[in-house]
Amino acid sequence: MDLPLPFLLIFLGFLPSSAMSQGNISLGSSITATSNGSVWESASGDFAFGFKEITDGAFLLAVWFNKIPEKTIVWWANGGNLVQRGSKIQVTRDGRLVLSDPDGQQFSIAVAAGNNVSYAAMLDTGNFVLASENTVNLWQSFDQPTDTFLPTQQFIKDSRLLARFSVDNYTNGRFKFILQEDGNLVIYTTEYPLDSVSSSKNAYWASNTFGTGYQLMFNQSGIIYLIAQNKTILQTISSDTSSTANFYHRAVLDFDGVFRHYVYPKAGGSSSGEWQEAWSVSASIPSNICTAINALVGSGACGFNSLCQLGDDQRPKCQCPRGYSFLDPDNEMSGCIQDFESQSCIKNSQDKDNLFDIYEMENTDWPSSDYEKFVSVNEDWCRDSCLGDCFCAVAFFGDGNCWKKKLPLLNGRIDLSTGGKALIKYRVNNDTVPPGVENVIPNPKDSDDATLLLAGAVLFGSSVLLICLFLIYSYLKRTKSKVQPQSIQQPLATAPGMNLLRFTYKEIEEATNGFEEEIGMGAFATVYKGSIQFENRSLVAVKKLDKVVEADKEFKNEVSAIGRTNHKNLLQLLGFCNEGPHQLLVYEFMCNGSLADFLFGNSRPRWYQRMQIAFGTARGLCYMHEECSTQIIHCDIKPQNILLDDSFTPKIGDFGLAKLLKTDQTRTITNIRGTKGYVAPEWFKSMPITVKVDVYSFGVLLLELICCRKNFEQEAEDGNMVLTDWAFDCYKAGNFKVLVEDDEEARHDMVQVKRFVMIAIWCIQDDPSMRPTMKVVTQMLEGAFEVPTPPDPTSFITVI
């Protein structure tokens, strides 16, 4: 690793903090369950062990964070059997932890190995232990985790977390997080109410470390990572850089099935001494629980017949479709029940077609409930087919295909990546209308009125039946050629050495409906939205290049640069068309657009979300610079070229200006490339260009992420127009708060704000040799070592 001396010194001096001394709880000691009862605290007071009142007069024996207002529970003993007021927990003289109710009935919570227990202790790590005289832990709560994983806690093979059932229900829920004996770290849905996992269920998230995964680590720097037996890091789960010295950390398998890493600042959380209202989420897996679960059995994220949609807070929101309501109104994850009588399948029944109708929902599907599929049909045909089929509860229409679905409906989701629309059947005469929608369907006042209405409907239907059939036939015949699904079964050819699909111009023209929907424009190209059904994808972005010399170079650069790459933070090139005058590139579609739209829009993105985008972008650049078989200099890193997928994972795109280096090359001479404000100084000095030009651009981008403003703002106050200059002035003055003045979440994390500003200043040094590599930048962002004091960026101007 090439490190400047200050980095090296800090790296060598990075040592773990030492453990704190603890107080002991003598044998025979006990605590009684009362509303304001006594507790056993850790030496620092960070954690407490005792009874927490969950509902009136019902208590949970638990360990919790004791210094914050929320008193967050991290471990419990009796989630499925809350005890009454007056119950008692005692460390018995024979070394057991015994819970007894007011009637004297006893339950052993912990039985230590052997009979050598000398005391109990609530440790500052959050671990409650029964220990021997020589401080050996004979039993510890860390070995019996519930839903929470804490820093320094061991998580070895066969260790598991079980989600609670709901926010205030501590019985076992429907999700399990486990490091399997085969080394794979996975999250499953369970066979609720059992804790077991069906062999027919696949994990909805997995590390894919078969045979190598050995232990999950949660270190005191706040980083969670999976290691092999030889201590090699296999995968980083969360890379929050908030040290446990200044922040509380916990990782939880939440009741909604998402494994989240939470942080909470110590010492109040703000300069005014007021406590932060809630924990901040540093990382979540999976990023979208609604789309992650695809098992063919089980109730999914929100229960049977329900729909899951990711909210603005990145948490799943459960809802019921029209005609359905929650099974348990107090628990939105309980699933939904049908509020109307289903269509009868008995021949000559009274259930005529006009008693049911279809309610449309865009980007909505229950993908695991299909029982029949039809291709090359239109939406009207799909709708009528479901209305006429007594088994059909919902039909899904998309790309000229129609899928029929039956009850119970599984794994429902509303998401832009779904595309298409759900056609939901409901009974019109007792429909439950969603809140805020007036029911304009008249209900008959009595049975005679109902009979007359039904008879009228039948007569009317008979009189127009032939006309309708004729119109439908005519429409189908006219549109048949237009509804053929765009399905690419196999590429005609691939680019040499690359796994890219080659499309014909006609295929792309049809996929974009004649280049109908424009979603972006560049100097030499226009980007269109399209739909091409192959593998597990449908939506794509098609970049159509103008036929000019510059565009021809851009086309070759882009195919060459990104065609051989494979990284989650680089936009994936799926294929291309190079047919006569037509040059087009087909990319994966990014439903959340560019970082520029996200960052400089009307609403401010959350602090931790912006930092995760910084981490991902840094990792993508590190891959391009140091891990690709052919080193790539992007040359145009800016928010417009960072795209965001459905979980806001950043992906570096637009490689039209990229420069490829040969194996033995570290620098190159080329004309000025890039965008004003992000271009490194050496472009203007006839100096050789290296990967450090991307480091400079990333430094500017990082400041934009920190401050949530553009690198140049004409209307800003004097001295503040150029972001890089203003940031360094604030750094010299030690006034970091002004950079995040209107960002309360960032102001609660000033240690990190200062760290990231210092990293950015190292990146924007005028002298490229002073800039760290992207590997070092990534390590500093993730907290692998401290950030040295950066010099003035203009202190090392090279004279040419």
UniProtKB/TrEMBL annotation:
Protein name: Receptor-like serine/threonine-protein kinase
Binding, ATP: K544
Transmembrane domains' residue ranges: 452-476
First and last residue of the signal peptide: 1-21
E.C. designation(s): 2.7.11.1
GO CC term, one of those recorded: membrane
Domain Protein kinase: 513-785
SUPFAM superfamilies for the chain: alpha-D-mannose-specific plant lectins, Protein kinase-like (PK-like)
Catalysed reaction equations from the record: L-seryl-[protein] + ATP = O-phospho-L-seryl-[protein] + ADP + H(+); L-threonyl-[protein] + ATP = O-phospho-L-threonyl-[protein] + ADP + H(+)
Highest taxon above the source species: Eukaryota
Bulb-type lectin domain boundaries: 24-143
Cell location: Membrane
Phylogenetic lineage: Eukaryota, Viridiplantae, Streptophyta, Embryophyta, Tracheophyta
Family: Belongs to the protein kinase superfamily. Ser/Thr protein kinase family.
The entry's keywords: ATP-binding, Disulfide bond, EGF-like domain, Glycoprotein, Kinase, Lectin, Membrane, Nucleotide-binding, Receptor, Serine/threonine-protein kinase, Signal, Transferase, Transmembrane, Transmembrane helix
GO molecular function: ATP binding; carbohydrate binding; protein serine/threonine kinase activity
